[in-house]
Fold these 4 entries.
Entry 1:
Amino acid sequence: MALHGPLAAAAVSPGADFSNDNGWIVALKAVFIIVFLLVSVLIAIWFEIKVVARMQVRP
């Protein structure tokens, strides 16, 4: 069974191809993502502490 048209093009091009990236680039991207997630959690915790502390201030 031969594929014609858009199906044939979709079968040939797999989408994202990361085979040309070096190992250190992949490691750098992974470290960047992990650091971003850790820092965003720290900022969320800090903000939550500030909000709860503000709610506990008595007028």
Entry 2:
Amino acid sequence: MAPQATPPRPPPRVGVQDMAPPGGYASIGVARNVPKSVGPRASLLMLAGALVMGGGCTASATSTCTGGSSRRSAPPCAVR
């Protein structure tokens, strides 16, 4: 048998890592003309959303329990 040839080896992994310059980059001023507040507070939005969902659930439950004007037959209400 003929001697087997060894497969070629890949070159060594030597590279230059891309790094920031010594001392870092200069800062970029991007928030020059941004207002402090642009709308209602988050707590007000949460409260408004909870009220809307609560009203919708209440309206849905009362229309289902009382028969409502739904075209589908409503299941009997568990709590009266």
Entry 3:
Amino acid sequence: NGSQFEAGVFQAALKRWGVSWGNSTTHYPQSNGHAEAAVKTVKELVLKLAPSGDLSSEEFLAGLLEFRNTPHATGLSPAQIVFGHQLRSMVPAHRSSYSNQWKDVMDARERQAEADANTKFRYDLRSRPLPSLPVGAPVRVQDPKTKLWSHSGVIVAVGQYRSYRIKFASGSVLWRNRWFIRLVVPAATESGSSEESTSPTAEAHDTKADAEMPGKEQPQLDPPPVVLRRSTRTRKPRVTFSI
């Protein structure tokens, strides 16, 4: 959403290097889950090894090196996936750990791709896509802090990955994900609402007037007869014994 990503210098650099770039909407981290998980891990690493913010310290660099040598769920570390072997660090290791293992790397990539496909399949089972919104539709936008639908605007463009460019009443134009957008339903006409609201009242008034008229007698209904309930239990005669 930053204007620096729309600058001509940045777009020209992407074109020269053949990079296909796409931005994600704000306040929706699950759209870029792998990157957000990596950011969370690095933040924890900085908090533990470089609380002062000095990322050039030896403690932080050594911790980052060990993180790159730590195996993931695929059984291989990031260093093995990228370079085909472990990186030499302060932790003692056998020399065979630094040999190239490209076959294992390819197998790990296949396992990772299969795990990603299974994760997507399980997510799609319980999720449904929201209906798309056209350009020019009035919408309400949820505030990321208060969680209230307190902002209103108009859709001016439709982007990729279910993102919409919205122009707010203040004049600002921002990208928002479809999850935080709701279409504004127009209110009903005053004539229709007044007819619907007066009809039941009129009927209730007529019924009340008929009931309060002194000259109009109401039919008297006889109360239903009272039916006595008798027990149907079989009784046995009482037997007395002489002692």
Entry 4:
Amino acid sequence: MANRRVSQQVQELFEKYMQTDHAPGRRLPVHDAIKLLTNEFKINESKAQIIFAHFDKDGNGAMSLWEFQHLYNVVGPNCQETIDLYESIDSDKKGYLTTEQVKEVLTKMTLSTGENLDAKEIEMFAKTAGTEGKTTLGDFIDLKARLKMFKRPKRK
């Protein structure tokens, strides 16, 4: 992760759920991480498990402070809004979005500058949103993070 400094807010929230016997590793075991996600982000347990699995980058069944910081920076306190948006697009409830559904939502999303995406950008983001034309909730969260960080090249 590029930014290794952890905000006080993120650190305090993480430590609120950390048991003292886990302190040396600065990791939350899965059950404590799920509790943090359900209590603080107001999401249900099944969605918390999906999000935990997505952000447990090293796959060790625990969430490190750095993994939590990444989660917080990507979805922050608006996690439920992201889930609600994803579920409203996944109207057929297949558990994934098609490339066409992703393109449709991208036409309504804006960059951090407030600008709309152009057709080439929509195509690029839609093609890279998932695998084999399927965008899962985790992929969608990544897509939103990439949009947040995307800097459009200066146009000539």
